[in-house]
Amino acid sequence: MSQAPINPATALWPNDGLTRVPYALYDDQEIYDRERQRLFMGPTWNVLGLECEIPNPGDYKTTFLGDVPVVLVRGKDGSLKGFENRCAHRGALLCLERFGNAKAFTCIYHAWSYDHDGNLTGVAFQNGVKGEGGMPDDFRREDHGLRRLKVAALAGLVFGSFDARVPPLEEYLGPEIVQRIRRVLPRPVKVLGYYTQTLRNNWKLYFENVKDPYHASILHLFFTTFRVNRLSQTGGIIVDDSGGHHVSYSKLDDQPEQKGDDRDYEAAILRADHDDFGLKEPALLGGRDEFGDGITLQILTVFPNLVLQQVRNNLVMRQIVPRGVDQTDLVWINYGFEDDDEDLADLRLLQSNFIGPAGYISMEDGAVGDFIQRALPGTVGDTSIVMMGGDEAASSASRATETSIRGFWKAYRKVMNI
Amino acid sequence: MPPVDDDGASGDSNLIGKVTALLADYAACIDDDELERWPGYFTAQAQYRITTAFNHARGLPIGIIDARNRNMLEDRVTALRKANIYEPQRYRHIISVVRLTGSADGLIQAEAGFLVVRTMIDGSQDLFVSGRYLDSIDFSGARPRFAEKLIVLDSDKIDTLLAIPL
After folding, report:
1. For A363, which of B55, B60, B161 is closest by C-beta distance?
2. Of A71, A143, A162, B5, whose CB count within 10 A is highest?
3. Cα–Cα distance between A78 and A76 in angstroms, integer?
4. Which of A98, A353, A355, A374 should one mutate to test binding to chain B, selecting the residue with the greatest count of B CBs within 10 A?
5. E runs forming strands in A212-260
6. CA A233 to chain centre
7. pLDDT of A152-205, one tens digit each?
8. Which residues of chain A, if any, have pLDDT below 70?
9. Which B residues in the span 51-70 are in contact with A, Cβ-Cβ below 8 Å?
10. Residues of B in contact with A199 (CB under 8 A)
11. A323 in contact with B at a CB cutoff of 8 Å?
């Protein structure tokens, strides 16, 4: 049975279409709580990290699924496991470190301990002291394990779900998204480093921003200013059937053959570039066609919290962590491959200047959600307009479209039942 | 250039004074929004990198900014002035007492802690970042310049964006 709308805001959704979005969705605590319960802890796959972060048995990392603290651990048999980072006894955080290696997890409060599967294996003073006190005779440890996650991995990316009803990961993603994930994760991965950007806006505003190719050449003026983007580009948008996942990609049209020296590529860019307004140090604009398809930009999202990004040779897994109605942490994990040669490894680092909180083509994304969040007070009953490119949430050859934003709302409304 | 003792020259008050003055000028250049002068504090081949204590401790190479020469710093100023969009904001650097940590290849190595308070145009203020400057300074020219400035932030988190350099 479907639930009735829980908030007047949702009653304001003008119709069943996807071209209007009520602003009330971005600053409502009831909506936020419902998202935690139905969406993040519901039948969705949430990215939690990279397999290479926990390579050995007993290795663990702490992270978040939605805003729920969780632990991801590699078991003795090498399999991936996950559970809520909360002791079953009194609810204290079980793991405090970001990364570690543990044979068992013991709560610091009363020393209840758990194995890698989250089974409760020990209760301090379970039988009391000198025959006094202790747990009742009918207390059964097997009834008090940690809340477990389903965990699945694809091409080195690790996802988790609290909901046993979630479909198998590849089915959830669909074949086109799976193929595009594999494209940027073809070989064993290594982490190049971490940072987190704190966004002063609701998590959905960031996810919409990432799914919005319309703003790219308008808000982010770096490429236009430095005349890098004048080459006409080809590309497109893929939206999966659920609507929740998308890929936006583009390639430079007149890219030279990449068989020879990487400098050919750089020189070709520079021909379009060398006027008074060029960069003094053009090395940033170099690149290598490492995946062999000429695509220089691929932004991929998986509902509800993954952004997988290729900007030339810079590769990043971004994890969206909601921190309340009006705050979001964006965790950036830059990665490369174990077999990267020295030049390619260095290109990834050099081109990281494009991305992140100080990135030439991404810093604005940190602020624009904040600009919307701060303007919400006057939006009572109002909606935003998402009409660019029509009213559907389908794949598109044009990038002058908001189709992938509509796709997000299609998936969102279904799982939220609003 | 005064010689550096084997024990790290931490007793060389003259040299400490020079490094302190350099850092004071450097911070004033940024805080006074004279960014066009900022690249001049670096040698032509200077390395300027902002990282986090977590990455630094684990040897993870990514930078939040990773500039490999002065031209890249000049490009960043051009981008901030002409391309990137961010709300008007100012920094106030508070730099700790300088510690000399060694010398190599004719460069003096120095370390100082810092705080940056960020003030937005609406008057809101926050402690934006704290961290350490790990500097290699070239005193051989007409004025001292940073040959390397590695900025290690104490926290992994950056609030909203990092536009103006640290």
Report:
1. B161
2. A71
3. 5
4. A353
5. 233-239, 246-252
6. 26
7. 999 999 999 999 999 999 999 999 999 999 999 999 999 999 999 999 999 999
8. 1-12, 227-232, 253-277
9. 51-52, 54-55, 60-69
10. 160
11. no
Domains of chain A in sequence order: 46-153 (2.102.10.10), 176-416 (3.90.380.10)
Secondary structure E strands in A116-200:
120-122, 148-154, 157-161, 189-199
Residue A93 CB burial class (10 angstroms; 0-12, 13-18, ≥19) = middle
A369 touches chain B (CB under 8 A): no
**CATH architecture label of B13-153:** Roll (3.10)
Is the Cβ–Cβ distance between A56 and A78 less than 8 Å?
Answer: no
Residue-wise pLDDT tens digits, B87-99: 999 999 999 999 9
Measure the CA–CA gap between A61 and A409, rounded to whole angstroms.
31
Nearest-by-CA chain A residue for B163: A358
Q: How many CB contacts within 8 angstroms connect chain A with chain B?
A: 119
How distant, in Å, are the alpha carbons of B86, B99, B142, B143, B147 from that of B1?
42, 17, 11, 11, 16
- Phi, psi (degrees; rounded to nearest 5) at B133: -95, 125
DSSP character for A246? E
H or E stretch at A206? helix A203-210
* Cβ <8 Å between A191 and B83: no
Contacts with B160 from chain A: Cβ below 8 Å: 197-200, 357, 366-367, 370
Pair of tokens at residue B49: 């990198």
A353: contact with B, CB 8 A cutoff: yes
Q: What is the pTM of this model?
A: 0.93
Has the ipTM of the complex gone over 0.95?
no
Return the bridge partners of A26, or none: none
Q: Which of A98, A189, A281, A364 to mutate to test binding with chain B, by most B CBs within 10 Å of its CB?
A: A281
What gap in Å lies between CA A321 and CA A378, rounded to an integer? 26
Burial class (CB in 10 A: 0-12, 13-18, 19+), A75: middle
Residue whose C-alpha is closest to residue B83's, from A9, A295, A203, A221: A221
